[in-house]
Specification:
By secondary structure, the chain is an alpha+beta fold. It has helices spanning 3-30, 37-56, 79-92; strands spanning 63-66, 73-76, 102-110, 122-127, 130-135, 141-147, 155-161, 165-166, 173-176, 184-191, 196-204, 212-213, 218-221, 226-229, 235-240, 247-254, 257-265, 270-274. The strands form 5 sheets. Strands 6-3-10-8 form a 4-stranded mixed sheet, with no helix packed on it. It has a 4-stranded antiparallel sheet with strand order 5-4-7-9, with no helix packed on it. Strands 11, 12, 15 and 18 form a 4-stranded mixed sheet that branches.
């Protein structure tokens, strides 16, 4: 086989190895294929050495060193430069190892004493364009699961939807996620100014005995645009921007049926009797 044919074969092999290296770097960096860093660099170095070998068969490489041990001048030419360039490019675009997602826990506490231990409501976070909202559980905790590790140590918008309470004076606030394996944020809520907790029961008349509770009744406090539902015992509670002793127009409905419409006195022990005939 002639020298020209051999050199052409080396050039073709070199080009094919360069193409393979480019595809290796591109697909691992884009996530199309999953390779560990040790395997990635093993393949990169093997291909790099092969490309250098084939190129060395066509070009000449030389290295010069002069002077003392670490104070001399090193001159590298030919395929050795290609080896270093390929290695540096491969290192620059190495795949990023994906770390495990984490769970972010909020522990909700309240500024004022005497606040009920269990508060209905929710906490909302925004991760770029991905808002997530979860209810506060019976232990006043909210746990957001499977959050990307890149949010560790970052500031994220957090807002609360808990009647009568707020995180800050604004709609939401920026809070830094602790940079540890199991981050926990203690969220201190402040009572909304001029907001009072009112509660009571909704009963319906009973011709054969004492009044009966009305469950799942919808109470609409018209002046404030606030709505609340009664529970199985007819009990309800709601925060309103008012004070005890004020009056409010109240409309009560149940399953689409109009039960009550009148002005009531606001207090923490309201007893509302409706006619459910």
């Amino acid at each position: 086989m002639s020298a020209k044919k051999i050199n052409a074969a080396y050039v073709i092999a070199f080009v094919l190895l360069i193409i393979f290296i480019v595809l290796l770097v591109f697909f691992t960096n884009s996530g199309a294929i999953q390779l560990s860093l040790p395997l990635y660099f093993f393949l990169l170095v093997i291909c790099d050495l092969g490309a250098t070998f084939f190129l060395a068969s066509v070009l000449k490489s030389s290295a010069e060193y002069s002077g003392n041990v670490l104070k001399g001048n090193l001159k590298i030419t030919g395929p050795a430069v290609i080896f270093l360039v390929i290695l540096l490019i491969g290192y620059k675009y190495k795949p990023i190892e994906k770390e495990d997602p984490f769970d972010l826990t909020f522990i909700v506490s309240y500024f004022e004493k005497g606040i009920p231990e269990k508060q209905k409501g929710s906490i909302r976070i925004e991760l770029d364009n991905n808002p997530r909202e979860l209810p506060v559980d019976e232990e006043n905790k909210v746990v957001f699961t499977n959050i990307d590790h890149r949010y560790l140590g970052k500031m994220i918008p957090v807002s609360s939807n808990i009647p009568g309470f707020t995180i800050s004076s604004g709609k939401d606030t920026l809070i830094k996620v602790p940079d540890n394996v199991l981050p926990v944020i203690r969220l201190l809520l402040n009572k909304v100014i001029d907001s009072t907790l009112f509660s009571g029961y909704v009963f319906k008349k009973n011709q054969k005995g004492p009044p009966l509770p009305v469950k799942n009744a919808t109470l609409n406090f018209m002046e404030f645009g606030k709505i609340v539902n009664s529970d199985d015992d007819g009990f309800f509670k709601i925060y309103l921007p008012s004070k005890t002793g004020d009056n409010s127009n109240l409309v009560i409905m149940n399953n689409g049926k109009w039960l009550f419409s009148d002005r009531v006195v606001l207090s923490d022990n309201m007893q509302i009797l409706v006619d459910d005939n």
